[in-house]
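Annotated sample (chain length 80).
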Amino acid sequence: MTPLRGSELLLDYLDGALDADAAKEMDAYIKADSEFATLVDTYKATIAVVKATMHQEVPPKDVERTLAFLRSAESSAKVG
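Output written by the structure step:
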């Protein structure tokens, strides 16, 4: 299994998208492998942080500053 496929399976597990048999297999694997259990906990914590912050409003001055930077970088790339 490739790392990408493993990550996809883990995310499907965390989203509850695996069928019952696959979810049971994943539960058993997590219980049997403490390092993998730590990885799962890390994924869960990361997802929680992203969900908690993804709906926050970006202050308009930060939006403008970011857009100005991107426009400047784009202009520089066209010149060079």
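Annotation: The chain has one domain: 3-79.
Annotation: The CA atoms of residues 41 and 47 lie 10 Å apart.
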